[in-house]
Amino acid sequence: MDYKICDGASCVGCALCADVCPHGAITIGFDPKGFIRPVVDPMACVGCGICSSVCPANRKMTPSDGKRDVYACFALDCEVRKRSSSGGVFRLLADDVLSRGGSVAAVGFDKDFHAVYKIAKEPSGLDEMMGSKYTEARADGIYKKVREELTSGVPVLFVGTPCRVAALKSFVGDRDNLITADLICHGVPTGRLLEKFLEGKSGVRSVSFRSKERGWQEFSMRIEGDETYSRSLYSDPYLRTFLSNAALRDTCYNCKFKGDGYLSDLTLGDYWGISSVIPSMNDDRGTSAVIVRTERGREAFDRIRDKMRVAPSTYGDICSANAAVTKSSAKNPRHDEFFDMIERDEPFDKIADVFGRPVSCKAVASERFKRAVKKILGKIKR
Ligand SMILES: Cc1cc2nc3c(=O)[nH]c(=O)nc-3n(C[C@H](O)[C@H](O)[C@H](O)COP(=O)(O)OP(=O)(O)OC[C@H]3O[C@@H](n4cnc5c(N)ncnc54)[C@H](O)[C@@H]3O)c2cc1C
After folding, report:
1. Is 155 among the domain residues?
2. Which residues does residue 288 pair with via DSSP β-bridges, in sequence order?
3. Same domain, 158 and 216
4. 0.85 exceeded by pTM
5. For 172-175, which contacts have Cβ atoms below 8 Å and span 24 or more sequence positions?
6. Which of 24, 25, 179, 36 is nearest to 116 (CA)?
7. Of the residues 81, 154, 325, 362, which has the maximum number of CB atoms within 10 A of its CB?
């Protein structure tokens, strides 16, 4: 049967449809732009509609915004903080859940550095989940695994982009033993971009999109391989292309799971702007913004509180320097040109020459100067 799960344009690539199909009629593939798309086998599909009924693109779900306590915080453990993108809250939440015999579902890499959702039951499994991977992550299979864990009665922490949290909630509903944390999300670029970028590197052992070797605010792309590659967000062509907003999934330009649409217990992000708001909370090693949305989120946050330095903040202050909390990224007017290049399979360097150009030395110097001034003003305020 020829069946349409949703209208296509609003598919977020969560892959929940593949997990729920009782006939095994849905597999996960990639569209010509390189984004995750379900593929329906017309021979196996009986048109039962189960996939459409749970699809987060079709459903209107109740957001979890009864409460909005907001904090700036970071892990006291320097090593955790160093390896995390922001202040290391993810690792603290995850360690706590594991210490209570639970499981953590979050994003790691497969052997070819494709981002994928996985389950960790041991602290060693958390290491690869640390750090933001600025690429679309495959989630097929994870919802069923999380449901199994929940059914066995153990506490489960699920961390991902707001659309993947929406998919999980659509599937399992609200469970007493489930804590969900979503991310303040800029949007996800096509996985083809990272594939192309890594094609030119040999013996790759690790990829960090948020290395803090130049500091948290001037984060860097670092790749360990036969050669070590490291460039800051001002000059790295992958990060520049990601931040150009030409490479994102179409639904990311109009995300319905941010603003008033979050469905999580907690939202985690970078506390950009902290040097102006609470200067004492910024040492350029990473500060998290945490939004506590539910009572379960409050309990989870309180359980790790003694492992962090915490300062209460406000929703307005978090949003003032971090538009991504409430707004989707604006589409680059040359978005179609970018995807024409992807579809023509142009090499990474050619694409980056158009979309990943480095910031000028003058602009970088000005950014660094502004940060230095803020740091001095912060010290005076203190
Ligand atoms: C694609 C993307 C865009 C983001 N955009 C913003 C933004 O605009 N503003 C902002 O303030 N914060 C953004 N973040 C969130 C931020 O980068 C940190 O992930 C967050 O602050 C948590 O950091 P941490 O120090 O607590 O832990 P970390 O150890 O850095 O935690 C990383 C967490 O993110 C999950 N994760 C990593 N990659 C992915 C992925 N591709 N898809 C889903 N989950 C993933 C991991 O499973 C882990 O749970 C984004 C994250 C991602 C993945």
Report:
1. yes
2. 73, 270
3. no
4. yes
5. 172/143, 172/146, 172/147, 175/150
6. 36
7. 81
Q: Is residue 291 lining ligand 1, measured as CB closer than 6 Å? A: no
Same domain, 218 and 82: no
Domain of residue 21, residue span: 1-60
Residue nearest (by alpha carbon) to ligand 1 atom 17: 132
Rg over alpha carbons for the chain, rounded to the nearest Å, is 21
Residues near 39 by Cβ (< 8 Å), separated by ≥ 6? Answer: 26, 27, 28, 29
- Work out whether strand 103-109 and strand 115-120 pair parallel, antiparallel, or are unpaired: antiparallel
**Three-class SS of residue 66?**
coil
Looking at the structure, do residues 131 and 259 belong to the same domain, yes or no? yes
For residues 114-150, one letter each, b for 16 or more C-beta atoms within 10 angstroms of the residue's C-beta and e for the rest, the string is ebebbbbeeeebbeebbbbbbbbbbbbbbbebbbebb
**Residues composing the chain:** 382
341 lines ligand 1 (CB under 6 A): no
For residue 84 and ligand 1, the question of a CB distance below 6 A is answered with yes
Mean pLDDT score across all residues of the chain: 95
Rounded distance between C-alpha atoms, residue 193 and residue 155, angstroms: 36
